[in-house]
Design brief:
- There is one protein chain.
- This protein is α+β, with helices and mostly antiparallel strands.
- It has helices at about 1-10, 45-60, 60-70, 85-100, 110-115, 125-140, and strands at about 20-30, 35-40, 80-85.
Length: about 140
């Protein structure tokens, strides 16, 4: 719930120009519900991420009040924002893999790969089913 509230508030209600290209990935709440770590991802360089963090820190009170409106509990969790580099690292890893792995080509070898996935399966092979029907018919007679 915290992730949804914070995400929609950042997207639709904050007007701070420092906060842009932010994705709220999740929120981890402490067992006593007094603290919440909100994991975010910022697309851009380190300077953009630092500016976004300053903007979110200054908007923390506003975002906590939005969370308090939706969550009915004794305490409103104190928000703490953490940059999660997981998405950025996965994009970098995918780019490295694309460079290292050879591109797929249109070889006749690609048909062999399909046969290995479905060995012994032939769409045009109807003889086995007719033989099975003939033997069933013979058993009935």
């Amino acid at each position: 719930m915290i992730r949804e509230v914070v995400s929609s508030a950042i997207l639709f209600e904050l007007r701070d120009p420092r906060i842009k290209n932010v994705t709220v990935l999740g929120a981890d709440v402490s067992p006593d519900l007094r603290h919440a770590s909100v994991r975010i991802s910022v697309m851009g360089d380190e300077k953009t991420a630092a500016l976004t963090m300053h903007g979110l820190t200054s908007a923390k009170g506003f975002l906590q009040s939005k969370v308090a409106e939706y969550i009915k509990s004794r305490y409103t969790p104190e928000l703490r924002f953490i940059i999660d580099d997981g998405i950025k690292k996965s994009v970098e890893t995918a780019a490295l893999l694309r460079e290292l792995l050879p591109a797929e080509s249109d070889d006749p070898d690609s048909d062999e790969e399909t046969e290995m996935v479905h060995p012994g399966f032939d769409l045009n092979d109807d003889d086995d089913s007719e033989d099975a029907m003939d033997s069933a018919d013979a058993d009935q007679k």
